[in-house]
Amino acid sequence: MDQRRQGAAGLLPGLTGWLTYHSLVRTHGWSGSAPATDEEAISRILAAASKAIDERGADISIADVARTLGVTRQTVYRYFPSTDALLVAAAVHAASDFLDRMAGHLVGITDPTEAVSEGIATALEWLPKDKHIGLLIVPGRATAHTESVTSDLAVRFANSMLRRFDVDWVGMGFTDGDLDELAEHLLRIIQSFVIDPGRPPRRGQELRDYLRRWVGSAVTPPLEATTSVARTRTSSRR
Predict the structure, then answer these.
(1) pLDDT digits (tens, 9 = 90+) for 130-143
(2) What is the pTM of this model?
């Protein structure tokens, strides 16, 4: 699979501990329209949770979602063992759309410095409007799953975003380990700007210029890769 096409699927393994599909008989309720399968039940629970997050952020509970769906709390607990598990699942469910929009916004940007600078700036501009992704990468809710900006889920999210850039990471000498560390580095930068955007905050082109200048060195291709590319170009001219 092309590394740039890896999206929210890379986040799903992190949910296996919480999101379990049970072959249980679904209870009555569901506002008079019971789901036909467990997959449909989960989809409807996530949709209700997503709507609640849009309206109230992380300040929701299993009881809130159950009331919206017209079911008991026990019905929701069959699929999600806690509110935290439901919040994270809803965030991951929404990640695919965020990654698609980010990839579309950055399409055609092949220079790593430009791609990373624009990606960070855009993420910072979009985060206040996307409460779901904020649950993954913005600290502030002390849970076992999203307790830090470098949680496994957060790093998977950033890694998925990096691999969807139109940047030839492999051709430039970046290994999987390099991209893992870069993903962590970008998350730390995003965290610092969220916690303290500056006085006054940098926005627009000023923010991009700052990121290009000071973050650019983190994505400068390794010397051997740069030398190899230069040699290839010289050889092709002969």
Answers:
(1) 877 777 766 554 34
(2) 0.69
Spell out the alpha helix ranges (H) of the chain: 38-56, 62-69, 73-77, 83-106, 112-126, 131-137, 152-163, 176-195, 204-214, 223-237
Pick the CATH number of 20-79 from 1.10.10, 3.40.50, 1.10.357, 1.10.287: 1.10.10
Q: Which residues contact residue 195 at a Cβ distance below 8 angstroms, ignoring those fewer than 6 apart?
A: none
Q: What is the CA radius of gyration of the chain?
A: 21
What is the C-alpha separation between 25 and 74, in angstroms, rounded? 12
108: amino acid identity, one letter: G
Q: For residues 115 and 163, give the distance between their C-alpha atoms in angstroms, rounded to a whole number.
A: 11
Domain boundaries, the chain: 20-79, 92-219
Mean per-residue pLDDT for 173-195?
Answer: 89
Averaged over 150-174, what is the pLDDT? 87
Give the pLDDT confidence of 222-236 residue by residue, as tens digits.
554 444 444 444 555
